[in-house]
Structure formats: C-alpha cells, structure tokens
Write a structure and sequence with these properties.
With 114 residues, the protein is of the alpha+beta class. It is 25% helix and 22% strand. Bound molecules: adenosine monophosphate.
C-alpha cells in the first residue's frame, strides 16, 4: 500500500473526482479549489517534484501540459484564459510530494502569486 496520497487516488484506493485518465497520467479536481476550475494533473508513476526530473521525464511533461490545455478547452476556459502552476518544495508551498500541475481558471487572478 502506498504512503503517497496521490498514488492512492491514482490507484483508486482513495476516491478522487477524476476527470481524465490514461496509461501515463490522471487528472482530478482539487479538494480545496482556489478557482471555479481547479484540476490537478499528475503522472501515474510516482515522481516527487520537478527536483527529481531528468531527460526521461521530458515527453511526460509535454503530455501533461497538452492534457491540461485540452481540459481547459473542455472547461470552457479558452476565451478567458487560465493558469498552470507547479509548486516545488517548501518555499513554493508544495504540500503533496507527488508532482502535480495545477490548472486554475474561471476567475481573474493576481500577479505576482503570494
Ligand atoms: P501543492 O500545495 O502545490 O502541493 O498542491 C496540493 C494540492 O492538493 C492542494 O491544492 C490541495 O487542496 C490538493 N489536495 C490535497 N488532498 C487532496 C485530495 N484528497 N484530493 C484532491 N486534491 C487534494
């Protein structure tokens, strides 16, 4: 049994509001949404953060961004736009140690992020 929360959502051991799944990645709605659309796109294989990334993950990262863009279209975010966020480590506020791309949209956002 995995200790990792997102591995457990991916395996179905913990229920998640899954909006997309394929052999490489899973996307599910954030449990504490920070925007009308807040979806997390995660690799099925455990990867802690971008700090662990190497050449091997390059195609996977491209695929994750492609799926994020497709989900944004499905969520009707094309016209208004959206934000893709990756937090790495404590200074960025990463709270789950399984790489995830946040897809946020449906409201106007400020910059710089807090
Ligand atoms: P981060 O702070 O970048 O590590 O983001 C982790 C995200 O995971 C936060 O936005 C949390 O709200 C979200 N989260 C934590 N537990 C769950 C869960 N069980 N299902 C869906 N999202 C979760």
């Amino acid at each position: 049994m995995s200790e990792c929360l997102f591995c457990r959502i991916i395996s179905g051991e913990i229920a998640g509001n899954v909006v997309y799944r394929d052999e490489q990645l899973t996307a599910f709605r954030d449990i504490n949404p920070q925007a009308p659309t807040h979806v997390l796109i995660v690799p099925n294989e455990h990867l802690t953060s971008t700090a662990e990334m190497g050449q091997q993950q390059v195609p996977l990262m491209g695929r994750i961004v492609q799926v994020a863009a497709e989900l944004a279209r499905q969520e009707g975010l094309q016209a208004g736009g959206y934000r893709l966020v990756v937090n790495t480590g404590p200074d960025a506020g990463q709270s789950v140690g399984h790489f995830h791309l946040h897809l946020l949209g449906g409201r106007r956002m400020g910059w710089p992020p807090g």
